[in-house]
Queue: 4 jobs
Job 1
Amino acid sequence: MDQAYYTGISYWMKGQEMITKGQKLRLWVILLLLATVAYSPSLFGELVWDDHAVIEQNPQMKQGVIPLLTTPFASAAHRGYWRPVVALSLWLDYQTGNGSPFPFRLVNLLLHMAVVVLFCLFVQELLPQRPFAAWTAAWLFALHPAQAEAVAWIVGRTNLLSALFALLTVKLGLHYFCSAKREHLLGAMIFFLFALLSKESGIVVMILVPFFAWLKGPIERRPALNWFLSTMGIAILWFSMRLYVLGSLTRDLTDVPFADMSFLQRIPLAIAVLGRYVQLAFIPFKILPVYPGSILPANWVPSDPTFLLLLTILVGFFSLGSFFWRKEPFILGGFIWFLVALLPVSHLLLVLNFPIAARCMYLPLMGASLAVALLLEGLPLRLLRTLLVLLIVAISFSQVQSNCHMWSNDVTLWRTCIARRNGKATLRVLVEMGLALSEAGQAKEAMYWYSKAEQVNHNKYQLQVKMARAEMQLGHMKSAAKRLRAVLKDEPNNALAARNLVYLLSKVSRNRAINQ
């Protein structure tokens, strides 16, 4: 190993302040090479899960640019999705590769690399005399196992783009609080709007910027007032645009869990959800694409043991940061970044159709990575902290590769999900497993998983129609027709069942005509 290379590594290990450009370049190469190799299994997968609806079956991908800006994201008006920046980026990839998954997946990886570089530069700027913390935070963020969902799943791009623009907003926003230059404020507002147009959770930078400006030192009243008025103006503009495109600011909450809870009832729910996210951030094993509602307490009372455990985790989280407040305020700052960035998915302010989603941790994990890096830097023995970081990086590297393999195709995704829950699966996972196998031409195995789903709830997720389609693949036309007629008897307006029955009858008629 040459001397220059060794010096670059030892700079990070010893926390030295001075480093040559060549040594810093080597550190960048190590960081980006590790991350690229870790996520490389994500490059050669297929379209997975919602990718089919968002890309393959989405007419927006075959239209011009204007519909991307003026229509809901992937025709999901009922879910309140209008994300034109994401839609435009996916459209460009579709045009580049004619629908091939590779361009989408490559761009996701490149976006992640861009966010990693920007985050590392941001922490170096935030803590210029703390090189160990800056590089460690970058490595922890780049290789956190939960990031695989945002990077390896094409639809996860919403989190990558939103985080990229949110981080640019924070960076320029802090410059504005330090310099009061209008060009910094203008740049921050442009990136803030882009963050909102990528994903709604970008709204959290309104809070993060003044909070971190305050951590760095006293803030003046005028910049704070200008920041508040400017961000409110951008938020109002964004809300107005959403109202024009979607026709409503509310979303369809039919069949959405927790929708009937009042705000006060959702407070313990939010505590439980945040506790689970903390658990996933610091014990990131067995990451799943779908987390069942059963991972949250069934009864929202103080005596519920699951709720008490999650509350304890959350209190411990804050206590740890508060303990180091005087010595290192950015530890608590990182923890607060983590929690504030999770508020949009905590079920406190909004009601979502999923309890937990690893992809939603992308932006929050910046704060957690910063806090953990500073805690590791505070360890008294230099060799111990270095070995701990290398151990965490090695384990994370392995976990990221495993999680990227999980997102290679639909069958692998749902098999892994079932395996990681020790053979147990929710109704949704059972149905998705059957659908994936059916689409892969494995109708017999699909019927096995559909039958398991039928035992849980035979009516939900259009299960009976999916089972009829699998029976048609197996050539069991009479059984399929009987199942579809039973669905139409209970639900005369079921358009999907009607279309499949018409298709089945026409196919049977054609076969009879050929045989005659």
Job 2
Amino acid sequence: MYKVERYSLSSIVELSAKHYGDRPALSMIGGKTFSYSDVETLSRRYGLLLQHYGLKRGDKVLLLAENSPYWGIAYFAIVQSGGIVVPILTDFTASQVKNILNHSEAKFVLCSEKYRSRVEVPDSSVVLLDIRTGRPLESNGLQTNPGLQASVGNGKTGSPGLDTLDASEFIPVQPSPDDVATIIYTSGTTGQPKGVMLSHRNILSNAIATRSIIVLRRSDRLLSILPLAHTYEFTIGFIIPFLAGSHIYYLDKPPTATALLPALSFVKPTIMLSVPLVIEKIYLASIRPSLESIKAYQNPIFRPLLIRVAGSKLKKTFGGKLRFFGIGGAALAPECEAFLKKAGFPYAIGYGLTETSPLLAGSSPKKTKLRSTGKALKGVSLRINSPNPISGEGELEARGENVFIGYYKDPDRTKEAFTEDGWFKTGDLGYMDSKGRLYIRGRCKTMILGASGENIYPEEIEALLNESPYIEESLVLEEDGALTAMVYLKSEILSDLESKVRDRIEFAEMRSSEAVHALLESIRKETNEKLAGFSKIRTLRLHREPFEKTPTQKIKRFLYGKQDSRNATNDHS
């Protein structure tokens, strides 16, 4: 990685092209590969195109597309032109996209064909362009900007595309390090989206600080499976490898097992980023059942060896060359992490938020500590506000160059996010050990206060429930002064239960099924045996469909509770 003299996302395009030239930068699996020089040339053409269409410094540009080399090229083009990127998560609805378009006051939308139906431009003042070609797109069957023509140099007019422009004519804008680079609207887990403003300094300082966890090389290969519109994937999975001269591959389809396995075999990645759900599913569906089927696994003498063998096979499944498997976005299930640790799998844990660009703390594969998210990154300060004198727990607060500027057009919410002395309030409860390692217990807003003042963390109970071979996912809530757990069973379990109900009655009528009752009661009792008295589950409720989640696979808790009884049956206590 070359030395970054100036915190500017605009300048690193030229610097990376200078240092890495024709080395491969971005590829679609089974498709085209773009070198670092290609990325610079295309981003300059794209920047020239945007300027011809009237983009001015400070204009917002919505970016809505699936992961591909063009996503990153378009991002660089926007910041090189002086614009502000508003990346849109592809699971946002058309209504959400419309709200963000209006709130951000964006003048441009760069969109792929796949998602153009989700964009409805309000009038001809908004330019809607194809992210791949740079040419105008239609919105809901209506041509955007009727008659729009851009100045294409030398007095010519027309509808230019990337293939018609001369990159040498483009003069990049050099923003200040503290200028806003992006506004990220997160769906979050607390309801209304909010626009997080991150500066060039925020993002690049965080990218550089991660060298305390992992140092990328030119020889590294990354397989990207998380949305680039999320700051976790963008900063760590795009900016860092771009600074290091690494090679990033993208899938042209969702990372299901049928698509992911061939991709892993082809790329043989050395670096991957993931949310816990990916590795947890592999562990619960394949690894644990395989180990438990081996008689020798019950013998404590042979168990460590069998776990190491399973770890070696898992690494081969990921291509055999993996040296860093970063996990973030949510808490990793304790049982799964214990296996990864014993198996010698090169997993690393990170913790952060969109507001912190994103990482605050992390650990390298060689320094992971069970249940810890690692130590604060270089340049990041962490403290626990009003720690409990016994447990040491309190709300985590942070300070550093990576902490965001504020929420766009929301000074009240911005003020609430910081303490009077300028520390960012993360909203997470945790504690630090004597070596400075951070442990996150849960969200402040989700913590439940027990009858005798005990702190109950629903995320920890959910982790225990999710270890059940019958449960796909769960959600723990407080109802009428006691704990209720809503559980969504695995599809094969649901099918089996349904077949046991005579005459193929409707699923909602299964509340009378003895099979369902027995299973739920068994799960409740087994889980309660592992819990303290104050955190035992009184009611187990069957949820009939998957819970709605954020892009990092956290359940949107605000959607569920007593009002969600329409989707739940079979209360057992």
Job 3
Amino acid sequence: MNFELKSFDLAAAAAFKCDALLLLVADGFKPGKDPLSQFVQQAVKAGDFETKAGKLLQSYQSAAVAAPRLVLAGAADGSARQLRKAVAAGVAACRANTVKRLLVLVAGAEPDDHGVRQLVQAAAEASYVYVTTKSVPEGRKLQKVTVGVADANAVRQGFAHGLAAVAGIEMAKEWGNRPANHATPTMLGEAARSLTRLPRIKCEVLGPREVAKLGMGSFMSVAQGSKEPLRFIVLHYNGGARDQAPQVLVGKGITFDTGGISIKPAAEMDEMKFDMCGAASVLGTFRALGELQPAVNVVGLIPSCENMPDAGALKPGDVVTSMSGQTIEVLNTDAEGRLILCDALTYAERFKPAAVVDIATLTGACVVALGGVHSGLFSPSEPLAAALLAAGASAHDSCWRMPLDDDYAEGLKSNFADVGNVGGRAGGAVSAAKFLQRFATQYPWAHLDIAGTAWKSGAAKGSTGRPVGLLLDYLVAQQASAPVAAPRKPARKAVASAARAPRKTKATPAAAA
């Protein structure tokens, strides 16, 4: 879909030729003498329309406007959040008709950079349609949206940010929504390579042989039950100075999760195609970076494979050796995301990062705790956690900070390895984060559990594209901020010593079987 930004007042909007005019009416609306203002005033006075966010009034062939359709949408106080609600409702109403060209204008409030950005993102969200695997694809009816403001030059930065975010979010949605046979690890690697057409982006895709040489025994152990070869994707966006320490994003890329030998129930297992939404969010964020071109260096790491119950699959009780040298007793093969992420977190050390953020649909426990509203945020670094919380608020892609006390790691103790991969049902999202923390002691680190926010079930089933908006805001903010300070000491002395253990150069027997 195409967007354009133009300077408009109500009179010019009324004369603009398009299929529909969506007028977002805020509480501060003061009618002028023009016909459109009078129409709005009469509707409010008659009680047929109110400015409460999302309230609608539709008119066809109104004498007040040149467009055949006029939609009034309440925008309450005109804040970015209320504008999102108003646009979502208004575009949904237009979507039901044959509207291809839409003009969106705010009356009674003038949106700033942030408001324009949210307006663009809301319009794209409300008109998004997945078509890739449909035999008769009915694409977006809405093809062009003109955003009207009093002074277009004053909000071009917000408009550009919104366009970049839309490009990234829609790429994440596309790959999240694809069925697993249309989104294999190999295909994800190809999608990553396609990003190199954008400025400043480079990509390297490693296969099983290269991953074995790195000693990623934990990652390899998950992949060994599938005929689809694993891929380890390394993306670079070089927008900052050469000596600027990069921000590293690590995305979980399980393209389908059966649970392995610890197989999941059949009900809703189809939704396990969404288990690579962490990887999709990294791809989407890089797409957005390529469009927006901020002055920051970013590395993206995506360990990707399937988790299948083949005869060669990982078994409960197997012990594997991670890239860090730490051994892991696999008590549950359905806790596989942490097994692939831990090796990627160790790999991240080589970049001497300013900070590392991993993004994963990791635990059902996080869904129970936070539902589909907030992503779970875990971090021992106060500055990093604060930066991510602020980014979530500004992007309307919120996260909620969760505890990371050492006591939660007690259940991970093993009699047969350095650590077990699960710690019991109680506090499962936290114990999963504690597992990952063992492999992230050499830099400021945060973990985003997006199991509740990455997709929706039911009639609205599909990927949300979260947390691309959060990640983009976080990275853009790093242009002007000082490097995030590392924690003074690791959470556990044993963890720190294990993370410094010599790297393995060969896969363990369990991983290579």
Job 4
Amino acid sequence: MNNIDKFNFSADRPIHNIDEDLLGRAKFSENLAEAISNWNGKDSLVVALYGDWGTGKSSVKNMALTYMKDKTSKPMVIEFSPWEWAAQEKITKAFFNEISKSIGKQNSSEKNKKLADSFKKYGNYLAASEVILTSTSNSIPFIVSAIAGIGFFNAFLNDTKIITLITTGIVAVSPFLKWGIENLKKLAGYYDEKAKDNEKSLAEIRSELKVALQELENPILIVMDDLDRLNTSELRMIFQLIKANTEFPNVTFLLLFQRNIVEERLTDATQSGKDYLEKIIQVPFNIPKVSQVQVHEVLFDRLNKILELDESSHLQFDRDRWTQLYHAGLKNYFNNLRNVYRYTSTLAFHFSLLKGRTVFEANPVDLIAIECLRVFEPEVYNELSVSKHAFTQFQSAGNTRENNKEALKITIDSVISKTSEINRGNLKKILNELFPTIKWITGNYYYDYSSYNNWFSEGRVCHNKNFESYFQLSLSVNDITKSDLVDFISLTANENLLKSKILELNTNRKLKEFLSQFESYENQVAEDSAIPYISTLIDVGDLVNDDDTSFFDVFGAQSLIYRLIYNFLLRIDEKEKRGEILLECFNKSNEFMMIAKLLLSEQEKRDENKETLLDNPHYISIKELFVNKLKVLAFLNKEILLENKSLLTLLYRWKEWGEIQDINNWIDLISTNFQYLLKFLFQCIQYSTSFDGKVSKKHYYIKVGNINDFYDVKKIEQIINSVDKSKLSTEEIYTIKLFNEGITKFRNGNEDNW
């Protein structure tokens, strides 16, 4: 196919050269050329080439004309496109003018100039009838053939009274003619002018044309393509024009159109379109049928070229899934080359839009299928684009929602109903392959959560975080892309780069969303990266914002980091090796929260006799290391510990796994500095969340009973009451206010009522 650029776009133009033939029609085109070129009958010949839209009629015609050019006795080819003139009131004149121009261009001999001039004059005479043609309806074809077929134009020229008589009679006998006084004036004026020119009569010009055409060395081939674009009256005009001139020798008409369309438009109460055509078409041909295999070979070739535009998309291409979708029904949309070219041109463009920095930002198989729906099933595509909830609703076994299930099924059925009834079975199969998430609705089939995670990392349209990209077909600068997630994997071997990236995401308040998406990629982190990866996650666990949870979303960034650590260690089979890795990583770190969470989880599993992550020796060693490191930090770098947002949690772990007296001594120490004491109280502030049906609100408080678990709160109260508060900041005053409220509730025994 010609006109293909680097994005595999195609202008969808008919081919001209035999070497461009992809469907094996060159031989048919050659035989068609031979049949037309060898015609030497006395009368004209009308040949038709039938074929449906997009089946390559114009390409076969072009190849046939190419064959003719190489022949010794090649015809003089004149291509006339009636649909270009159909809306104008000059179609008859244009037809003969085009013939005249073509004859003059192709051969400048005196004989041909004379022939060209005769055709032009002949067209001028017939053009007079255009006034009548454009002012009538069903009578148009009859008038053309009558005027063209008999010689009474000469009478018009000799006596202009006759024209008045005839036109008046037409108006009288035909209620369907839309005649006007202006048209009468134009027609009468036209013949008055012709009479003054002393021109020959129409019959004389027709005779001269017959003689000149008979003497032609090379016959004339008049080609008319796309007749099926014309409406009924235009079609009748063209066919009557052809029929009226079938007496001309050495003239062949080659007509190209979709037969059923033209037959339908020519059918009326008097006759069928089929019978009408049989009276005019002498030699009908049908475009050779092309096997689906041939068309699909072109499709596959172009799809391969599109995949080559992005190497990663080629690597991500799942042949098994493509085979399933192809046989589920995608193959039925590609029954001709025009569909292939129309589809792959836009697909190539959308592939270029989703080309990521590191990897392709969609699943190539899913994009191929969704684009097929967009091009060939636009109503389905539009309905699907607003039905995300129904098509990406993940449901595990044993947790069915029957009421919700029925509502979702209605939405799915609504999408399927947007296609024709004959296509619904195939469309349902396609949607079930694209969206395994609906199989619990359509077939009571359930997947586990690991499958859903895999669909995300594979970029599948069925995952709710991937869905929009298939319909927006663009990447926002604020989006977390697949390239971002894949690049993050490459950072896991470098502690500094990984830590810098996590803190950058934290600063931009994108960390929580990023980590929730990265969970689907975590199994791609190499075990060789265990030490830098786990060490970094332990380090950042205490540094990230964990206050971005909502009323319904309880997982913050800290929880997600902990899950990454836990899931990575779980991938390692030997408990002893897990313990070695964790111990080495914790030894390098000065942070505690992730280790505290993991040790607490291990303790609970041991209490409940459940399978543990660590063996006992390493569990005990890590717990002892935790207490020792925390104690050293508390007394040597108390400012650092006082900055830790999880201070209260760490103190509880210290109390449980260490000595309570150590904590008492530490609080005694910080109480000697009022600013340290205020920082301590500030880290004891907690909040609860309420939801009134519209918005969620946070309520801040200090639960004094928690502090009393480590230290006598009366001592703290005495210190606060003895200090001059006039120079304190607003934040410090607020902290003291919450402490005093907490003291009151603590003493009243209702501090759990917040």
